[in-house]
User: Fold this.
Amino acid sequence: MEDIARAAGVSPMTVSNAFQQPAKVRAETRERIYAAADALGYVPNRVAGNLASGRSRFVGAIVPSLRNSNFAGMVQGLQERLEALGHELLLANADTAERQVGAARVFLGRRVSGLVLTGTEHPPGLGAMLRAARLPVVETFSVDGPFIDMAVGFSNYAASRALMALVIEQGYQHVGFAGYAPRDMRFRERQRGFQDALAEAGLRNDLLFFGPETLGFSGGRHALDHLLGIEPRLQALVCVTDIFAVGALFECQRKGWSVPGRFAVVGYGDYEIAAEVPPGLTTVQTRARIIGATAADLLVARGEQRAVPDPIRDIGYQIVRRGSL
Amino acid sequence: MEDIARAAGVSPMTVSNAFQQPAKVRAETRERIYAAADALGYVPNRVAGNLASGRSRFVGAIVPSLRNSNFAGMVQGLQERLEALGHELLLANADTAERQVGAARVFLGRRVSGLVLTGTEHPPGLGAMLRAARLPVVETFSVDGPFIDMAVGFSNYAASRALMALVIEQGYQHVGFAGYAPRDMRFRERQRGFQDALAEAGLRNDLLFFGPETLGFSGGRHALDHLLGIEPRLQALVCVTDIFAVGALFECQRKGWSVPGRFAVVGYGDYEIAAEVPPGLTTVQTRARIIGATAADLLVARGEQRAVPDPIRDIGYQIVRRGSL
DNA sequence: CTGAAAGCGCTTACAG
DNA sequence: CTGAAAGCGCTTACAG
Assistant:
């Protein structure tokens, strides 16, 4: 900055103003400064800026996986909105509980102005750490607290019930559930919706499979094999994720089973593949992009000390009916 | 830091040493400091630290998409290796050329110690900007320069030739190519391998389809439709990505075509789905994780002013043979 | 509209 | 093994 101040024949102060508060600098001076900055390939040092101002205008998002998820949609929503609001977005990948804490520490150390967390099940101590730092935090894809701070999502229970209403209405009697072993609140609520719906319909509701969260498409295959071993009359599989559901569809194809004639499958998430895989996957659309945009709004509002009237935002879901049930 | 110095009855300096160079502080003093830090929920301010030391020990990676890619594998490799080397990793998502430049500016502004770029086609000016900043940069998934600085990948041309050798050996005569319109060097090399191989075998090599890069699974469907319109005898489709290939497989299923009897498909990337989709996708495994780990090594070495003997690393590829051809 | 002074929370290089 | 001084590159609050 010193260099460009010299080149433009002004003080460093004026250079800073030209970038931060252009209105305070005469147009002519401003142009001279911009020209000098360009010529020198100057990129303002945000590290120094953040330290001096105590603000960072940058939010962090911790995503549990980059693979097979609709976190991509959330990230897109976050990014678009933050960009519009003049903030930056940086991501950290955290596939284990330890890495999740590590990522939070990284962001805290760099003094982010806000943090987005995915899901609601976090390692012990994470919430306390974040609260102690008084950092604005948004948890996503759920409205079932308790939350560390704010949340944007939808009712996983309600969505699950809506999906099950369809399954039951179609007359399926022997229905299985394919879930994850490390169940966070989102997955538990989906399972609860599954079990309550079947119980209320007077149907068996204990055909459950829980695989490790590292399982991708193969989870659907394992679930199907496992549940078929318990109940050979199994007619339908409700999956905690579209990825599991597509895996199950693949397994049906291998067995030569027609879908939904011989067997029905439903998923969760409405990933791109849900619309492409034959015969189309019936699933729950989670509006990931809106979740991201809303999270951005909450974080920025909080960062500017504005009151956030409704810190738990339910943005709903939608059932998407396709060929698989 | 001031606070914890007071609480532990030492100077701030000693606190800093306890965290940065534990060996320089007596064990007893150190314990006192750690206890105080814990009690106060102290998270060292890296912003101040970076500014003071001029080092950041943090690398940035710009990924073009979070969806359907094996960048996830690269990120995993990067993360594991950087963690071991005591560095932090932060990601930026950039799905357009402008966002790519924006992300680079964000990282530059925060004075990263190194940058990982995906692919080799970048907006004009990006290379100049990065070079002007004298920032260590690694481009990935290719060894076909020119590069901004360093690179880790494999020969897309060689991989494509190896795959085509298989296709031709199986006797397929009418073979199409499904690629991306915004072709960066990686995709161009794959296409060149495709065309050269067919030409050398005396076969037609102009059955090409190029879709926008936003196309996911549906790209395979579009490619198939388009090329079939040009050449109804089409027997096989070579895809620039497993995602396209799976989309093509879905389309075959919809048409009731047997694979590879009636139609053959090959992909690129060996994503998880390649092994799961029936009848298994023949593809090129790109060793994304090793690419990430190697990129981390290069960046850290360069950051520590160590000489990097071979800044363009070819880590090879592998053809994975499955049921689709 | 422009600028001199102080300070953000650390680290560096050095002295004790 | 411990600490007082200077400085990293900005911004803030103020004066001119």
Remarks:
- Residues 1-2, 12-13, 16-17, 20, 44-54 of chain B lie near DNA strand C (CB under 10 Å from a C1').
- Residues 185-200 of chain B form the longest helix (16 residues).
